[in-house]
Structure of tRNA(Ile)-lysidine synthase:
Amino acid sequence: MSVSLQARLDRPEAQSIAVALSGGGDSVALLHMLREAGHQVQAVTVDHGLRAESADEAAMVGGWCRDWGVPHQVLRWEDHPKTGNLMDAARRARRDLIHDWTLAQGLSTVVLGHTADDQAETLLMGLTRAAGIDGLCGLRPSWQQGAVTWARPMLRLTRDELRDWLSSHGLPWVEDPSNSNDRFLRARTRKLLAGLAPLGLTPARLAESAAHLARARQALDAAVLEAATRVCDERAGALHLDPGAFAALPEEIARRLAQAMILWLSGADYPPRAADLARFIAAVQDGRAATLAGCRLKNSWLTVEPRHADLRRWRLTGQGEAALLGAEGLRQLENWRGCGLPRHVLELTPALWQGDRLIAAPCAGFGLASAECAPSFKAWLLSH
């Protein structure tokens, strides 16, 4: 490996690593660069089954790995949705399959072969949507999903540099035909990017701009975290808001905080539409009731709506059958008002039952049990 590429490869801390290996030039180069750097690697390929050739390509990649002495596994996605965004569903399925496989192998780090070109394409696609800073700061270098760390070590390397490196080492790769299919926005953006180079808008230069914007987003995230400590108080899986303090926030910090609260409570992958979020923000500032994305604002308390309440948000310990406290559980608690929580918040907390008899309601201080909402809002903010 040349010194220049070695210096710009952000090597993971873990010694043993899972490599998401599609067989394309980027992931093949990443696999071998990490091996040269002394890492122990295992490769995993997801066959989405969306093209007739995909199974043969996955088998070919498996043959390469046998020749290289690299452990390799093919994971197949078979639960294709009949409606909706197929490409988005495929991306989610790939992530979940690799996550579960990584844990099963006793590994904690997965690396992906995205490059500076992917960063540049992502920035340009964001511009087509008139995206704000979140949509223009590119792909995340790393993030956490449960016990698995995902990382993109090659965001400072270009696709052409990697192809040259592969050719100099006599290593094979396969090109995904979707990369040149004009049906897909990324393929059209890739062709546009080639025409921007004479203006100095190279993949490396655009990726550098995305990195600057990412640092600006980090500053905004820090401001949101600080604002959250003054504006909202997490209790019993809900958020108690100070409308006056919220109204005093700068507009962008208020928007980001409101969006974060909704995403934390709802568990949604995508934020609400801008117009809907703006109406919700106005309701918070005015101290009015509102609902948005399965969440309910009432008397300055923000909770999930009862029909969206989910015990999986909670770590509950104790003996008994777990279920929400609900109105029936509240009727069996004589002194529930002493816990300081309103009825509509307490009813959505976990409880332990023996048949129809309530035996523990941790958030109300009743019975031998404990309950913790995980992750907490602060922990969620730090990880997103």
Summary: The chain has three domains: 3-210, 236-306, 309-380. Residues 3-210 form a domain with the Rossmann fold fold (CATH 3.40.50.620). The CA atoms of residues 15 and 43 lie 14 Å apart. The chain has a mean pLDDT of 92.
